[in-house]
Amino acid sequence: MLDDPRTVRVTGDGIAAVFRRADDVDAERAARTAPAGDGTAPVQEAYVWCNLTSGNGSRALWLLLLPFMVVNLAHWMRPAAHGLHRAVRLHGTLVRLAGLSLTVLLVAAACEVALDLTAWQCAGTAACASAHSWLGFLTEGWWSAPGRRLALAAVVPTALTVLLWYLSHRTWSAYESQQPLAGTEPEEGAEATPLGRPGFWYGRRLVARLRAAHTAAALLTVAAAVTAAAARHDRGVGGPALLDLLGRLLETTLAVAGLTVVAVVCRRGRSERRIDHGLDARLQRVLPLGATVLLVLALVYASWSRPGWRSAGLLAGDAVFGAICLAQGLLVVALAAVARTLHRSRPDPRAALRGLAGPAVALLACALGGVMSGGVAQRVADWLDGRSGTLAGPPVVLTWQASAIPVLLAVVLVLLAVLGHRAWRSVRGEIPAVLRDHPGEPHDPVRVRRVARVRALAALTDRAPLIVGVVAAVTFLLGAGALAGALGSGRAPADAAQGAPAPMEGAAEVAQAIGSWLIGLGFILFVTFGRRAYKDASARRTIGILWDVGTFWPRAAHPFAPPCYAERAVPDLTWRMATWTAATGGRLVLSGHSQGSVLAAAAAWQLPAPVRARVALLTYGSPLERLYGRWFPAHFGPEALGRLHQEVDCWRNLHRRTDPIGGPVLVGTADVTGEADATGRAAADGTAAPAGAAGSPGSSSCAPVDREALRDPLSLGRTAEHPLPSPILGHGGYQADPVFAEERAALLARLPHGLPAPRDGGDGQDPPPGEPVSPAPGDPPGGAG
């Protein structure tokens, strides 16, 4: 990134750090001793955060957390609104409840596999148990009692819960514990930009509270699964009155504890207007500890001797998964109503799905959790049962949901085919535009068509809301139909269709068979990719690219989601820029590519106003408006980006029409295109110069922000300047374009040359914006995006 093989870490650690060229390490000291007017070139720094998202092999475990990450995104997709504070809080509460349902769903799936399929059905069936020798000890002796088998199998979902708690606690200590820069409280009026609030990147208290609640909910789910089986037996056979009473008392206590967890999750969420250092220590201890005590009591209760108790049929999986599916559907409908109300209060024509992006993504998170749950249950059932057909199998609800997958895939394939056909037809329309961008150049028709095709494919990114909307709508309808079919018939689709017309019966059998195969295959692929990511650094980098976008946001809805790297990266950049300007009185250019441009904007918002007024932004391949502005309008909408444009010294944005990710930021102009990079690295043109630059800070004298789309490729054919064919760069290689150097030079020209000497014995405060200071050559940067 620094275009030099010899780099030195200036500050930071092995996870995220700021680097310089080896020759620039002592640039400030050299600048103070150099003759005045020496004209030393600005010094570049690079901020690298890739180890926050990929890192070591344990990152492969994050694949388990994918549904949690997706539902956390839904929290931040709320429409922009002013004055509707109750509706905003209700939006957050509904998303947190959806996240809680995902935790219960995942643990319930583990209970289905361990308790129902393995301990209850297989170990209770002689043919299945004999086919799996490792289950032999459960068929005779002390462990042969159904309740004791269930108590032993409860170790599996309990271990999963402990693993989730451990991952969340470890990442919480490393990510959410980074202290924001003190004294960054925004002045009056800056509250309209949420990302500028001092507590936005410090969610330590909320994550700790939600972690305690979700851990308790998971343990209560395991306790309820064990208790329900034993209590059903005690009520059904007229067993000892004492056991019947204990079972009813335990079930009531579990219900009260569950309602308590729901109440904790519904409590007011994040505190962004101030840095909240509280931790609710008592709540963090009481909830998990109380749930653990109830789980132990449930295990003891189930293990009590019950002569004549035999395991047969299914446990209460249908009721549990049906209730979870129904609750998730109602939450999504309520969330859609709230989001629509917020959107109507302040309509944004660029907002994805007219403000319904959050409900759509929350629904997809629930569907993803259902697919993972159904996949593991179906695969384990097939493995245990083999070809004998002696097991009752997984719950009917999961079988119906699996049968809906082929229909969903068919709809998705049709949609992609339609979009692909439109892109193919639009290639012809792009050809004249390509020729206009390269007037008078020699060209090859084949190459021209190739450039036009790249442009057409890059434009498909703008169709993402349509794809998400259609998939979410079809998923909702199919999920509702699957739930109704399972509850109405109580049988699998193929069995329920018996006696129907032959075509319908055949379609049901095909859908059930293909769905079962697909969901099992999906589970196998998921595990395979996780193992590969554990061993292969390149596979972890692929995961890191996904996490770059998905984990940019704080964990506001689900504590078991992958950690938010921006809660480390944004304070890093803010501290670096603020302390450098405080020590030197200088000004800087903050340069960011792709996801780095998003970090650069977030860090600029966190700066005190006098420091922010000395920062110039150079973004390229940036998804700030094209992706973040459309999908997260409350935080990156037109108003927020417009304020940032007014508050920084200058902002320029570069983009290409061949870039599928980046685009224009549409501030001060409407003609641009661009994209973003999710590699986890930020090329940091952090160039800095002293105060007193041409143009008053924050005057937006460099408007508009967006430059006209860069030519890509630089040349269509062979010319004197480009004797060899120029590559189509798309999202990368912005710094190789001559326009990049031109724009950077223009930004530096606004900043006077030289680096001011550090102040002696002053109050450490920055000078007023625009106040000239004594110059000295050289101007190192304060950070990079």
From TrEMBL:
It comes from the Bacteria. Keywords: Membrane, Transmembrane, Transmembrane helix. Residues 678-701, 750-759 have a biased composition (Low complexity). Residues 678-705, 750-785 are annotated as: Disordered. The chain crosses the membrane at residues 60-77, 97-115, 212-233, 245-266, 286-304, 319-339, 351-377, 397-419, 466-490, 510-530. Residues 766-785 have a biased composition (Pro residues). This is Integral membrane protein. It comes from Streptomyces fragilis.
